[in-house]
Write a structure and sequence with these properties.
three-stranded antiparallel sheet, 7 strands, four-stranded antiparallel sheet
């Protein structure tokens, strides 16, 4: 795609998404361990435990190493006076253009892990849906929230 949005989300998003991947893989590992115990106790076929173990390894490689890097490389955004341009996706790249006149309100969100890494997510609400820009530096998120809010008011006044 030409003319992709210029702004990137924080590089610390990689660490955050990898932690989410570790949590995801750990939960799958617990389920696999329970399945393995069940396989040996009830004398089920051994390939069930081996397949589940392979799934845990594949899950860890995908959700801890591959997907966070691809996700960070693809996530871009840009805010202009007229539009908010969002680009994201891993294998299928989605490009969204949100007109400022459609913006109803803008929020910042911050869970415990986001707070630990000094990151925030911006939620941009329109009548139809909510668009999010994840893992921005706290200061950048606040600046962007203020900017979008004032641009949306100006755009609304022009209508």
């Amino acid at each position: 795609m030409n003319n992709q949005p210029a702004q990137r989300i924080s590089k610390r998003a990689l660490t955050l998404w990898r932690i989410y991947g570790v949590i995801h893989s750990f939960i799958l590992l617990l389920i696999t361990t329970a399945l393995t115990v069940t396989v040996f106790l009830w004398e089920w076929p051994w390939w069930l435990a081996a397949g589940a173990g392979g799934l845990v390894v594949l899950d860890a490689v995908l959700f801890i190493w591959l997907i966070p890097g691809l996700r960070w490389k693809r996530w871009r955004y840009e805010v202009s006076e007229q539009n908010i341009d969002l680009q994201h996706g891993i294998f299928i790249i989605t490009r969204t253009l949100v007109p400022m006149v459609r913006v109803q309100h803008v929020d910042t969100e911050q869970g415990p892990l986001l707070r630990k890494y000094r990151l925030s997510t911006i939620s941009i609400s329109t009548a139809a849906t909510i668009h999010k820009i994840p893992a921005l530096d706290e200061d950048e998120a606040e600046r962007l929230r203020q900017s979008i809010s004032s641009l949306a008011r100006v755009a609304e006044d022009d209508v």
